[in-house]
Structures
1.
Amino acid sequence: MIAGQGTIGMELLRQSRAPIDAVFVPVGGGGLIAGIAAYIKRLRPEVRIIGVEPEEADAMARSLCKKERIVLPQVGIFADGVAVKQVGEETFRLCQQYVDEVIRVDNDAICAAIKDVFEDTRSILEPAGALGVAGAKVWAAREKARNRNLVAIASGANMNFDRLRFVAERAELGEKREAVLAVTIPEKPGSFKSFCTLIGGRVITEFNYRFSDPAEAHVFVGLQVHNRAEVDKLLVSLEKHQLPVLDLSDNEMAKLHIRHLVGGRAQAENEVLYRFEFPERPGALMKFLNSMSHAWNISLFHYRNHGADYGRVLVGIQVPANQKTAFQKFLDGLGYRYWNESRNPAYRLFLK
C-alpha cells in the first residue's frame, strides 16, 4: 500500500515543469505521506515533505515529537478520512526518516481550503482531502513565501451534503475574513443606527439582538473583513465612541452555539414584530434604519447573510399606540416587502 501510494510522488516529479519547493500531504495512518516521501526524497532530497493533520487528530505530529508511536485517547471526526488514534508502525518509521515536519490546522482552516478549491476548480473536497491546501496556506503565511512552487495533495471528495452548511459558515472565519463581535450599546432610540454607521460599508454576515435591559443592549454581529488589521482598527473605533466591544472571532463556543441562542423572552412595551425582505446589496440595511423615526426603539433584530439575492430581517420595534399611523406610513414608504408577525405563535412562545 505504501509503495502504491508512493507512485503519486513519481507522478509529481515526472509532470512538474519547475523544481518543487515543498509537498503538503494529508496524514491519517501515514501511508500516503510515507510512500510519497520515500520516493521524492530518494530522487530530490531538497524537496520538503510536509504532513498536515487536524488539530483534533494529530497522532503523527505527536508521535514524531515523542519519537515513538502514541495512542490518542479520542479523535475528532470532522476530517473523518484521517481520524486515526495511532499511526502505522512502518509508516511511522518512514516518516521519521523522510518527513520534514507536520503542520496542524483547525476545522476553520480546513473549511477555508474547501472553499478555495471550489472557487478555483468548482470541485468540492471532503475535509480530509483539503488538508494539504490548508497546510500549504499556513506554511506560506508563516514563511512569508513568495515565488515558491508548492504542491498540495487533494486526497478525496467524499463530501456529505449536510456538511456543506457548516463548511460555508466556517470558511469565512478560517480565512480570517469574518469578525465575530459582541458590542454593548445604549438602549435608546438611535443608538442602533449610530452603531451601524460606525460599521461603515462592511458586509454584515449576521446580526443578533434582543431587548433585555432598559439601560444597555448587547449586540452579536458578524462582519466581513479583509484582514486582522481591519478588525483591530474597528475595535479601536468602537471603543473610542464609548461602545464596549469583545472580539469573539476565536471563541469556539460563541461561533458554534451562542450565535444561534442570542435572544429569549422580553417584556418590551408596545412591541410589534415584522419580517422584512429587501435586495441584498450594500446600503440596504442603512436605508431601512435611516427611514425609521427616532421615536421607535428596536427591541429585537435578527439577520443572517445566506448568499441569496434577498436579505431577510426579523425586527421587533416598540411603537406607542399614538404612533401607529406614522409607523404604517413608514412601512408603506419603505419599498421593501414586509409581513406582520406579531401574532405568530412562535413569537409568543419563545420571544415575548
2.
Amino acid sequence: MSEAIHTENPAIRGLPANVTFHDLIRRNKRRSALLMLGMGLLVVVVGMAVTTLLAVYSGAASDEVNLVASLILGAVAAAIVAVLAGTWSFYGGSKAILALSGAREIAKQDDPQLYNVVEELAIAAGIPAPKVYLIDDSALNAFATGRDPQHAAVAITRGLREKLSRDELAGVMAHEISHIRFYDIRFAMLMATMVGLIVFASDAALQMMRIHFWSGGGRRSSRRGGGDNKGAAVLMIVVFVIALILMIIAPTLAMMIRMAVSREREYLADAGAVELTRYPQGLIGALEKLGSCREVLEVANRATSHLYIVNPMKSALKGQGHELSSVLRTHPPLHDRIARLHALTTPPAAPPRPSARGAKP
C-alpha cells in the first residue's frame, strides 16, 4: 500500500495526505538510530554519575584530578558494559525472551492453519517466514521477537489462538510480522537492555549509598580533607547533588522514552497489518476481543510487556484497562488504535464543487 495515508476525522491524529508507508518506515528507522544513540549516551552519563557519586560520597575524589578520573572511569566502564550487553541482546536476547515467556516452538503439523497464515503474510511482506511459538496460557496476547527478519519468531497464547477467527488471526499475525519487517523487534530488545542497565545502575548506586550512610561511612568521609580546599569541596558538593538527581530521574526518563516509542510503533504496526491483509476488520475484531480480556498473562513481566500486542500486566488491566492513556503506558489506548484503523481505510473527502453562482459562463 504505497498510496498516501489519510483521514477525514480531525479528532484522530492523522497524517498529511502525502505521507506514505515508505515514508513512515524510513522515519521509523531514522528515529530508531537516533534514539539508540541517545539511550547509549544516557547509559554513559549514568555510568559517569554512578562512579562520581560514589567517589565523592566515600571521599575517594578528594580533589579535581580524582573527580575527573572518576568521570572518565565511569564513562569507559559504562560504554564497555553497554556494548557487551547490547551484543548479548542482539544475538541471544530473543531466546531469553521466549524462554522467559514460556513459549515453545510448534511445527506445521501442530497447527496447519496458523502456519499457513504466517507463511502467507511473510510472503506478502517479502520476508522469510518466522518461527512460530505457542504460550500455554489462557490469557489473550501475542508478540514478535528476534534481531532481524532472518532470525525472527512470533508467539501467540493458547487463549488468543482459540478465540480468534481466521481473519482475526491474520490481523494479529500481520501486526507482529509488521514489527518484524520494520525492525521493531531489534529496537525493542536493545532499548529494553539499555533501560535495564540504567535502572540497575541507578538502583545499585542509591542502595550502596544508603548502606554506606547508615553504616557511618558518610560521616567518616565528610571529615576527610580538613577543609583545606573549599573550592574543591564546593565543586564536589555540586557534582554530588547533580549526580544524585540524575540517579533518581534517569530510570524514569529512560522508561518514558521507551514507552513513547513503543506507542508510536504500535500504530505503525497496525497500519502495516492493514497493508498486508487488506482487511482491517480482522485486526479490529481481534483488538476488540483483546480489549475485553481481563486475564493477566502470568509469564509476562515489566521487561517484556512492551513486546506484546496489548499490555499483559495486571496494572494495565485495572480500571479502564487498555483504554487508559498515559505517558507511563507502553501501548496506546485500544479505542484510538481502532479509530486509526478505520481512518486508514476511509476515503478522503471529495473537494467541494464550485457553486453555479460563482462559475464563469
3.
Amino acid sequence: MTLSIRAAGLIGVGAACLSLLAANPSQAWWPKGHAVIARGALKALPAEVPAFFRGAGELVGHLSYDPDVQKNRATPTLRAAEDPEHYLDFELLQGKPLPKTRYDYYRLCSQLKVDPTNAGTVPYSITEWTEKLTVAFAEHRKWPTNMSIQTKCQFYAGILAHYAGDVCMPLHTTIHFDGRAGADGKSPRSGIHARLDSLIERLDLKPEQLAMQQKPAAIPDLFAGVMAQIENSRSRIDRSYELEPRLPPQNEREAWTPNPEAREFGIERGRESVRFLASLYLTAWKNSEKLPLPSWLQR
C-alpha cells in the first residue's frame, strides 16, 4: 500500500498560516498550541527538576515550533527526512509489534513491504530525543554551572515537546489522518486534521490551565511508554470523527462559538499532552542520575 508524503508547505504563524495548515495534515496543533503544551509541561514538573530547566518556558516554547518550520519545500532533503518523524500510520504495520530501535523498525517495514516514510517514525523521534535529553542532564549533573549544557538541555526539550505533542493528537496515529481513508489507504483530505489541530489555540488554552494539578511520573520502560501513549491517542480516533461537525471551521476568520463537547475534548487532549511531555522530561532527569559519561569527556 502506498501513501503520499503527508507534509506540504512551510509553516507560518498567525492568520497567514491557516491556508498552509489546511494543506499540511502532518501538522499537529497549531504553532502556539505546541508552545502552550511545552510551557505547561515545564510548569507541571516537580521541584526536583532543576530550576534552570523549569523556568525555560520562553526558549522551549520557541523551539517547539522548529520541527514544523523545517518541513520547508525550499529545503527538500531536510523536509523528506523530517516529515515522517511526526506520525505513525499504525494500520500499515499489520498488527506487528514495533521493535525498540529505529533501524530494526526499518527492517520490519522492509519485511512488510511498507515504506517507513509512509508509515512514519514518531515513536523513535520521541524516544531518541528523550534519551538525548537524558545524556544532556547527566552532563548537567557533573557540570551544574556550565551554561552551554543548560542551553543544550533546553534545546533538546523544545524539539521533544513537538513530537510528544504530535502523538497526543489522535489523527497522527492513523491512516485516517485527514478523513477516513479509502480502500487504497489514501486520505480524502477532508480538512478535519487542520480543524482538530486548531483546538488548543481556538479555545485559548493556557499553560497554567493545562498544568494544574498534574502529577507526571517517570516512565519505567521508555519505548513501551511511548507506544502506550500512541494507543491512548488511537482510542480517541472515533471520537475525533464524531466531533467533526463541532470543530472550529477551517477559515480562521469565520466566527466559532466553542461547544461543550469540543471544549472538553480540547482540554483533555491538551492536558494529556502536558502530562505526557512532563513525564518524558521527568524520565530523562531521573535516568540521568546513573547514566555514565565517557571518561574522556571534559566540559
